[in-house]
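>> received
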Amino acid sequence: MATPSFDDSMFLLAHCSVCAADTLTHLGLGPEDDLIRCCVHCDAPVVSPLIEVSSEELEDRGYSVIEARTCGNGGGCGSGCGTRAQH
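>> returned
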C-alpha cells in the first residue's frame, strides 16, 4: 500500500460556532455512541456541511503540516534503529 503524501491529501473542515471559524474536524462519539464530527480545537460538535479542501487550501486557511522525516525504516525514533556504542 502506498503511503499518502500531504500534497495529495484532502481535509475536512466545517464551521464551528464556538470558534466562529471554519476548522478541521475529527470523528467523535455522540450521546448515543453515534459518530459525529467535532472541531479539532474545542471538541464541540459541528453541524454545518463539511468542506473538503486540498493541502494547499488548508495552508491558505492558516494550518500547516510537518511531515515526519525518517531514516527509511518506516518509523521515527524508537523504531529499532537507535544508536549505541560499538564494542
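>> The helical segments are 55-60.
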